[in-house]
Amino acid sequence: MATSYFVSAGANAQLHQLALEVLAPPKLPAQPLEQKHLKQRDLKQKPPEINVDRTRPDLSLNFYTEVYPPSSFYQHGKLSGISIEALHLIWQELGQQAQPIQVIPWARGYRSLQNEANAVLFATSRYQAREHLFQWVGPIFTARYILVANNTLADTSLSDISAGEELAYQHSIAVIRDDITKVLLHKKGAKHLFEAADMKHAESLLANQRVDLLAISESGFNAVLKQAPEKAHQYKVVSLLAEIGDYFAFNKQVPKEIVSQYQKAFDALTPELNQLRIKYGFLKQTSVGK
């Protein structure tokens, strides 16, 4: 026979209360109101951000250059040239490891310099119209920009060009796209400019007599003759356009502290840089003081 159990209503309530006390988590001491609110605010705060020292010279920069000997060119498959060697010396002076250098057409590099906040382009001619557009470190070297003609051009035309007559600038002239020579020739009234992607392309326009003249740096022209000595009898230098310093150009948004550190490192390397200028033909041995 089943046994029947009866629990009164009062006893049932006591059992229920006992079960709640056993299952409930232990009570913690009451916290002061200010401390409670402080912890609630802490929970809402974001994790602390890592402060990046933007004055460090190793802040990520994008370095651009073109193939334009003797400033920058490939030798035995390795990027070389006075500007390349100078930049590596600066990195060593700053205690940095070598960074990637992108070799691209000049016009593309110039656009990158204008539009990328961390861009550096070299070697960039520094003149009045560009002065406020960029920040500058240098000068790496001083370039002489010249006009070169084929010897087949009539002697009368050559004499006009040599004399700097206005008529001379009515000739067709090959220039590198967005190069300093384009600006210089526009100022002199030149109207028939043929833009080339790079120095090799520009020189080929003159070699194939598609233009009358080639605007080029004197050092660049010497590099052409070094690679193809037979062309020394084909060309003639007929005019000097200008002498302008070439620099490392930094985008305006690069922190000034970084540009300053690059310039200080550059200035500290004067003896080494003079040796590079001698090596690449920008400076004579006798003009360097001991």
Question: Which helices and strands, and how do they pair?
Answer:
Layout: H1 9-23, H2 33-44, E1 62-65, E2 73-75, E3 78-80, H3 82-93, E4 101-103, H4 106-115, E5 119-125, E6 134-150, H5 155-162, E7 172-176, H6 180-187, E8 192-196, H7 199-207, E9 213-217, H8 218-227, E10 235-251, H9 256-268, H10 270-279
Parallel strand pairs: 1-4, 1-5, 7-8, 7-9
Antiparallel strand pairs: 2-3, 5-10, 6-9, 6-10
Helix pairs in contact: 3-9, 3-10
Short description, anyone?
The chain has 290 residues and is α/β, with parallel strands linked by helices. Helices cover 37% and strands 24% of the residues.
Morphology call: globular
Estimate the helix proportion, in percent: 25-40%
Q: What is the alpha-carbon Rg in Å?
A: 35 Å
* Average pLDDT number: 82
CATH architecture of the largest domain: 3-Layer(aba) Sandwich
Q: Please tally the β strands and state the result.
A: 10
CATH topology of the largest domain: D-Maltodextrin-Binding Protein, domain 2
Percent range for β-strand residues: 15-25%
Query: Structural class given helices, strands, pairing?
Result: alpha/beta
How many domains? The number is 2
N-to-C terminal Cα separation, in Å?
A: 123 Å
CATH class of the largest domain: Alpha Beta
In CATH, the homologous superfamily of the largest domain goes by the name Periplasmic binding protein-like II
Mind summarizing the main beta sheet? 8 strands, mixed
Strand order of the largest sheet: 4-1-5-10-6-9-7-8
